Structures are given as C-alpha cells and as structure tokens.
Records
---
Amino acid sequence: MSSAVLGLELAYWQSTLIRVLAGLVAVLLLTGGVVYLYLFKFVSFMQSRLGPMEAGPYGSLQLLAEVGKWLQKEDIHTEDSDRLVFGLAPAVVLSSTFLMFVVIPAGPDLVIANLGTGIYYVLAVSALSVLGILMAGWASANKYALMGALRAGGQLIAYELPMVLAVLGVVIMAGSLNLQDIVAAQAGGEIFGFSGIGNPYILTQFVAFAVFMIAVQAELTQTPFDMPIAESELVAGYQVEYSGIRFLVYFISEFATAVAFAAVASTLFLGGWALPTSWGLSDGVMNVVGPLLVATKAVLLVGVVFWVRFSFPRFREDQLQRLAWKVLIPIALANILVTAVFKVAF
Amino acid sequence: MTGLLAAAETTFDVPGNVAFAVLAVLMVVAAIRVVTTRNIVHAALWLVVVLGGNAVVYLILQAEFLALTQLLVYIGAIIVLFLFGIMLTRAPLGKSGDLDNNQRWIGAAVGVLLLLVIGYAVTRTWGSDRLDFAAYDLPQVSDVAGSTVEIGGSGNGRTQALANEIFGSYLIPFEVVSVLLTGALIGAIVLARRD
C-alpha cells in the first residue's frame, strides 16, 4: 500500500507520519492563533482595553510565555485524590480532541484518513471527552469538581442529540457520511438550477446550521453554557484541582475542540476547502488554496462562538436542559423530516 | 506492493490476528479487573477498556460503522450514564469492602452457559464459512471533480450494506427493538415519577 504525496511515492508509514505531523502542526498553530486572536485581543477590544502588549509585537508571543509559565508550575494534587484517574483524565480529553481532526479534509488529498463514516466518526470521538471530564471531577476528591463534572455530563449528553440530528439533515442532502463527499456535494451542487456558487448547505440547511452551532456552543461549555466550570458558583468545576501542565492540557483541548468543531461546521455547511466546481479549478490548485479556505472559515466560526461567549450571561441549569430537549431536538427532528421529504420529492 | 497483493489473496490476515491477540489479552485482563477491583468507579473505567477493545475488534473486522456506534453508544452514553448514576448516589474514593457477594458460582455457570449457546449458534450458522472482506470494497478516494456524488462511491460500501440489511431484510426486528426500547424508557419514567 503506497500513496503519492507531492508526486513522491511514499510507503504507508511514511505518508502516515507526514500526515500526522502536518496535522498536528496545523492544529496547534490554529489553536494558538485562535487563543491570541480571540481570547487575548478580541475580548480586550470589546472591553475597551489593549490586552497583552509586552511579549512580542502586540503581545503576539504572550501565549508562549503563558505556556512556559504553566510548564514550570508544581504538579499539585489533593491528598485524597485518585492519582491514576486524576492523571489520565486530561489525556482522555486531549485525545478525544485530537482524534476529531483525523477526518477533517483540507484539500482533495489533504486529509489524515478519508474514512467512509467521516462525520459519524467525528461525533463518536467527540463524545469521549465526557468520560475524561467525569473522571477528572471524581478523582479530584473535591465537591465543586464533582458537581462540575455531573453538570458537564448532563449537558454534553443533552446537546449531543441535537448536534447529531442537525448533522443528519446535511447527510441526507449529500447522501454520504464521508466528509470529502459532503464537500464535493456542496461544490458541485446547485440551488434551483443555479450552480454558480455550488450549494453551501448554510443556505439550504440554515436550520440545521443554527441548531448545530448552538449545540457546539454547549458542547464546548462556552458561555452561555458554561455551568460546568461556572466560576461564581463552582470555582472552576472539574478543573478546580488541576494546575501546571495538566491545566495546560485542558486549556489546549478547550480551544482545539473549538477549532475542530468550527472546522467540521465549515466543512458541513460552508463548503469546506472546495470552491464551486463550476469555477473549474484543478485539484493541484485546490491542494494549496483549500487549507487556507477551510482554516479561514473555521477561524471565522470560532470567532462567532467567542463573540457569543463574551456577549451573553450564563443560563440557569434547568433552562439549559429545557433548551436542548424541548426546543433544539424537536426543531432538528422537523428539519430531518422536511429535508427527507424534499430529497425524495425533488 | 506485490507482497501485499499476495497477502491479500490469502484469507489469513496476519496483522489482524496479531492485533486481535493483543487486544484479547487486554480485554480479558480488563474484564477480570471489572469484577475484582475494590472501587466501583474503577470497575466502570475498566469496563471502558473492555468496550473500547470491542470497538477495535469491530474495526479489525472492517465494520467501521459498528465500531463507531460502539464508541458512541457504549462509552459515550452508557458508561457515562453508569458513572453519572454512581457519582450522584455514592462514589467513595479508595477501597470499599462491600462490592462482593456470594453469587460467584452462579455467575460462572451463567457465563459458561452463554459461551456454549453463542458458540453453538455461531458454529451452527456459519461453520467453516470465511468472511469475505473484499465483497464490499469500493474505491476509497472520492471523485471530487465530478459534479454529481454517487452514493456509496467512496468507502461507504460496508456502511451502506449494513443500512440495506437493517432497513431491508431486518426491518421488522429493527422496528420491534425500537418499540421495546421506547417501552422501557416510558416504563422507567412511570416508575420514577409517581406524581
């Protein structure tokens, strides 16, 4: 089994190594960029302040300074904590995050693994982070942490359902679970016979897009859905006993998951890496332009998530569950029904 | 390349079998730890290893969709529900002494019986049949330049075959199971809410 990268014939392990390393670099760069752009600068400007300005030009190296600080901190755990589970929990959360990037395509050939069940795989591995959060909350031997973990468990399970159901609308439209197929279906699609801009599903599946983004906001536990780590009630929820490098892992996975879900949303709804087929660009061109396109779309969508995060106050716990079960899930189910009817009728 | 092609023609899949052996040992050890550990949360976490190993076994058998369903349903939902329930009621850290009972021999007998029944059913149904992995192998690389997307044209073959079986040959059992699960759900709500 061999595959060609840039015209070179490489063994399976070589191309896999290149794909994984390139993916890792891209993910960490995007995550760092998003942290700087939104967490440091965007929110500062919204609050009429400058944000970090000292480390590097316009504070652009602030994140590296922060990472250096975290790496030097003492690795603390509470005396009663279950040390093995306590240590494993951040690893479970981080691997759940990184596994999501495996199937997200950035060009005709630029994907780590082009799985037939692409989007289903993303939903399955993203669901594993709940396990890490529950482990963290329990092993911390802290009542606040346990409360935070229980809230996170209830919230993540509740919002997984509208997310899966919203994705189904897109899957019905594209007729495939494979993310490359979904991208191709959008690039080659047409809206009422007009194929000039393809068929980005944000136009024809806007209900699914809205439900998906709300569910993403909740899955990321960003405000207004940040009850699991509500600082005014639970100190920091399941993260309260973590410090140093373990906290850094939670920090990275929080923002990397935001990038991952935004990349998935841009692939599902904004056309992904592709430009409309009617523009007639070759695969070689798209292998260069594609990553830039999908990264730009993903960063913009992360911007929407953070815009909402910094603009709205927190829900109450009971309001949270009501929104998922009584509003989002019925809307998503109705969307599936309507989409299926249209798919069969036209 | 030629070596791999030759290997593909034989039905004995060496890497798959090695991976299965490693996994099987891991899963058996984890399964024993589920029932011998002195901490109930640890038992649930060892069960994660067993169920995750199960998902990888499905992957080795090239049942991608089933493997992901295993992850999503068993680890992402059922184990989380277990942990949720344990942590809501009591989840002591450290060892607790009251996790054992005197039903070991009954449990062992049920286990052996289950093994015999399933083993008999599997050998009776398939006997010396070999799994034909090549049957559903469709091209893995999608044709992005094409303006239309052919369903099942990009590695969706096995998933599609599974869907055809469930919504074709096995539609009625599938619907009956759905009704059964809905019934259980409503029953649980009725039992929990007596107001």
---
Amino acid sequence: MTMFHFVNCVILTFGPHAVYYSATPLSEYDTIGTSVKALVVYLVTTLVKLICLATFLKVSETDTFDPYQELMRTLIGFIDIAGIYFALTQLTHRNISQAHKFQAVGLGWAFADSVLYRLAPLWIGARGLEFTWEYIFQGLEANANLVLNLSLAALVSLMWLRKNKPKTVIPIIYACAVILASMPSTVSYLRKALGWQPLKVVGFELTSSLVMAFISWQLYYACQRQV
Amino acid sequence: MVGTRSDGAGGELLESIYSVLVLALVLVACVELGDAATAVDVYRLIQYDIAGVPFGSRLAGLNHHAGSSLSTTNADLSRTAVILPVRELNLTLLNEFITRKQPLGGLLLLLPQRTGSRESSEKIHGDSLTRSILVELEKLLIHSYIPYPVYFAFENGKLNSILADVRRSDATGQPASATSGGYKLVVSSWEPKKVSAPTITNIQGWLPGLKEDDDTNQLPTIAIVAFYDTFGAAPALSVGSDSNGSGVVALLEIARLFSRLYSNPKTRGKYNLLFGLTSGGPYNYNGTLKWLRSFDQRLRESIDYAICLNSIGSWNNELWVHVSKPPENAYIKQVFDGLSDIAQDMGVKIGIKHKKINISNPRVAWEHEQFSRVRVTALTLSELSVPPELLESTGGLHDSRNIVDETAVYRSVKLVAESLARHIYGKQGRNIQIFAESSSLAINPSYIALWLDLLSRTPRVAPFLEKTNSFISALKKELSDHTVEVYGTHESIDGIFTFYDSTTATLNIYQVASVTFDLLLLLVLGAYIILLFCFLVITTRGVDDLINMFRRPTSRKSKAA
C-alpha cells in the first residue's frame, strides 16, 4: 500500500502545477515553451546559487540557526530574482501577453523547484513502509511554493517590464519582492531557531503565501488600472 | 547516402540513451528501502531437533501487524505478531495457547533490561519473580513445537512506548490490521538452515607433579572438570553466568593457584593435576564422554579422582556433593571428608547425595556420571540439590551476571583448592590454610570477577561456537598461562541433536497507515484538485467557460446529429 501513498503525495505535490496550467488561459495560448525555458533558467540559476553557497558558506554539521550564515543564504537567494528577471526579459517568447508570460515563468519556476527538491525524497521516502506526515506536508509546501513563485514572478514583471506605474506603489513592490525572495530563509529561521513543529511551519507557509499572493494581485491590479 | 548513415547513427544513439535511462529507472526502483522508525536487535528462540522430533520456533521471517494480547477475540491472531513483556507474562495463558497449537503470526517477548549491578532489595524481589517466570517460560518454549517465529528483545523506551500505543489501540477495539493501520513488525530473514557438522571443543591442560627419579610408577592424577558451553531458549542470550560460568571461573582460579605452587620444585606435589574444560554439557555431557574416550587406558586408571564443578555461583550456605557410588565407599568418603573438613572451618554446610547410575537410561544428569561409567571415582560439586532434567539448568535466559555472587565462587574455590592441597601434601585433618587471604597464594577476587564478567557477556551454545571462536582461544590461552600441554580436541555433537542457525536478527518496526486512510487521502486530494481547477477556471475565464467545458462534448454530438 505504500505505492498508493506515493501516488497520493505525487498528486498533492505536482497536481496543482498541472491544474494551474490546464485551467487558466495558459493552456489556450500554449505557453508550455515559456515554462520549459523558465525551467532551464531555473536549473542554471540553481547551479549558480549552489556555487555561491559552496563558496561563501561553511558546511554546518549541526542543524542550528546561524544568523550570519542565514544572511548570506538570503542574499544568495536574491539570485532568484535575477533569474526570473532574465527569464522574463532576455528570453525570446512567443507573442504572449505580459500577464501570461509571468504566469508561465512562475509556473515553470515552481515546477522545476518541486522536481528538483521534492521528487527524489518522495521517491525514496514515501514508498517506504513507515508512514509519516512528512511527505504530505512537503506536498502542501509545494503548493505554497507555487503561489509564492507566481507572486514573485508577477512582482518582478511589474518591477522591470511595466514602465508607467504609480509612484506610490513602487516601494511596496520592491518590499514585497524582498519579502518573497527571503521567504525560504524565514521558514528556515522558524524551523531551526524557533523550533516550530512541521504542522505549524506548513500552516505559516500556506497563509503567508496566500497573503502575499493577495497583495501581489492587488498591486498588479493597481498597475493595470493605471494604464 | 551520408544523410541516411548519420540518421542511423543518431537513432542508435537515441536508442542507447533510452536503454541507459530504462536501466537507471529499473535500478532506482530496485533500491531497497531500509528506513524504519525503530530497529531493534532481537534474538530468536532456538530451533532444534532431537532425533528428528522438531522443537522450538520453526520460522524466522516475520511481517505482521503488532498486537498486545493473546486473548483478543476480534483480531485475526494468525496475522498478528503479539508483543508480550515477560515482566507481566501470564504463563498459564501462554502455556494453554501453545499446547492448544493455536495459530499466531509471531511472538515478541520483551525481557527486562539486564542490570550489571545489584540493586535494592525491592528490585531483587522483583528480579526473583521475573527469574522464576523466565525459568518456566524457557522450559515451556524449549520443549514445545512452535510453528511461528518467536523472538526475544530487551525492553527499552522506544519498545515500551510502541507497546503502550499498541495496547491503547487494542483497548479501543481496533486491533492493528491492513484496514486500520498501526505498527508492523518486520524481520527479513531467510529460512533457517541446519548447522552443518556442529562441533564441540574440549580443552585440557596439565600440571605435572614431581616425580622422584627412582620411581617408575606413574604419578596419580586428580582431574578438575567443568563444562563451559550453555543451552537456552535464545542461543544468543545464553551466557550461563552460573551454569556453568561459575564452574569455569573456579577451575581457572584453581589452575592459577596450583600453577604457582607447582612452579616451585619445593612445593610441587606428587600428583598430576588435569584440568578439563568440556563442552556439550547440556547434551548429556557428550563432550565429557568423548574426552574420556580419547584417554588411553593407563591415563584413565591413573586418575585418582575427578571433581566436576557445576553451578557454584549462587549458593548461600549449602553445597552438595553428588556421587554415583555409595557414600560409604572408601575413596568417596576420603574426598568428602576432606571437603567437609574445610567446609566446617569456613562455616558452610556441605551435603552428600547419592544417585545410582542406570546404564540403560541415556540421560546423564551429572558430569561425574560419565567418569563413573568408565569406573573413575568422581563427584560433582554443585549448589543444585536435585539432578537437572535434560536441557535444564544449562545457562538459559535467567542465568545472567546479576544472579551470580562472586563471594560464592570465591568460597567454592577456597573449598576445593584447600581440600586438594591438603590431599596432595598429605595434611588431612590438620588445621592449616594454604591459600590464606593475605599470603602470596591468596585467591584473587578480581580475577574471579573479571572472568565472570567475560563469561556473562559471551553466549556459548556449542553448535554456534566455531572451532576458531575467539572465546575458545581465550580459554585455551588462559589455561596455557597456568598449565602445560594445553590443547583442544574437536568432536562432533551427539548425532541425535540438529540445530538451525539465524539466532539473531534485526526487527524493524514501522508505523503504517491504513488503506482506509490512503483512500480518504486520495478522495480529499481529488476534491482539492477539482476545486482548484474550478476556482482557477472561474477566476480567469469565468463561470460560463467552466460550464462549457463539461457541455462541449454533448453539444458537438448534437451538432453532428
């Protein structure tokens, strides 16, 4: 019955990506190419990030929270923004609208993230005889991550692609982007330094991602109206 | 032409990439997953045949859900591995269960933690209670045919908390099964194989006496013998501290004492001393029999008498001398008087028990009976007052370090050594102490304690001790430090005994979810995905689109019609 559990976890982890693609107009405009390009950019970005991490961080044997290390980690995490920016602007996309482009990039980005960080643990762990909630939580995390990445892509596209946005909104956009990019560090801070239970952490991730998505949507909407 | 060739090469390349991918996938799928919540060392109940009649646990592999009681009515016991702590074991229930041959998936018996040190009196009282349960349990298990795996494990925090969990779920009337989840006990083990040609190793060493030049007669010999192997319900736990670790320790200490006396020509006695560590003790002293048979006639006749040491580590005030000849026999009387003189000086009681040998009975209850059968005067010194049955008092589960009293071994050594010394140097009836406490010949209590500790850590069931076992070499080495001409002889065990291997294993305990849970989860996830889909469609394209999606096929059909 462990294969069953594995299938369940896979549905929870990767289902939303597929649903998002097929349910929204993304599928109608056939933006899969954009998503795949974003995926490739994600891989390259991750490689760069890993190199940076390996260069600037010490390998900590203990699972403790070290502020300096985490700060470095957060800074390196901002490479993500650069990656998304690159994916949004430098790649030649088929003629699709701004709105669809950022969604396709965010989706590809989140999907690549899930595949890279969650598929292998799932394959190894969830098929074991031992039952843990870990993989279900991980699937929920993947959901939160999808929402976060979509928001981040939206904000990045607002930052650099939309020229005439209201002046008052600009600092908020930047602040939100910073918050989003530093979200992994925040979560790791909660988990390691405050010792939160997995359930609490996942709850926090879900709520925060929904809140950030709502804010991003409002910002995007505000800029849209300006035009 | 060139184009097609390169196409072919590309196709081949693609094919090879595909095959590599497939291979990789197959490899990944075959990776054995060893991630258990808890892995415990477990010790399997012995599996053996006597003359083809099977006894003990006949299976090793286990893969069942955990249960906590033998009497649950609403569980399918044949698919349940029951965990029973020995501390609270209901022996009559278990006895009935086994004798009625009721089906069971498996049995895991939790032994109380072994404590090395002695504890408060309350604890000792509890220990003695557990000890008596263990003795009974062992007797029951050893002599029954059990068609399912039986394992022993030591209690620990994890196991106890798992047991508490299992009990809680049993109490709610939801025993563990595939539909309700719970804990699963898994021992992956292949079928136990017969131990091929098990051997027993007898070790002997000599302390030759001083022979006068003009004396052509052979010197008389005194033999000190103890069997060192054990037998118990769990071969990997049968350390036999008392039976017969105490005898082995006493023998080694006596050898050490006399080697000091015999190293000086002035104090070298006119007796040869023969030390024998025999194996096969639990199997009617099979090793002793073969050891004696290997002696030539002259040697056998030169043996004045033999003292067998058996279980002398936990007596308080009374030791027994077991003999096969009537106590009035002159030789026996002489040895017994020597021993009881010393006992009187030491303030302990010593009794004599006479048990005739029945040649037609294959059961040999005492080691000295093997000597008596070849007409060598012999006696067994033991704290046991009645002859043990076959495979009884052979160092089983209960027989651990904490039941052995070092001072008892010390007193036994003193008793035997002093009486031997008086006999050898002809000082009978005189009140002298050769091994006085503060002299250079004093008995060394720390030597005794050290060897007791070592023996109490070493399971010594003969068929599972290889010829080259480090413990056997250690015994040989120790004996050769004190005596000369030390060698071990390898014999095969009495053919009516057959033993099976896989005495230890690792038990993995998994917490498993039920099928019902998986189904529910699938339903919830499906609902979530569908809801998400609807939500996204409605927010991005509008409700009409969603409705259209489900209508489209029908509308097309109608159009076509």
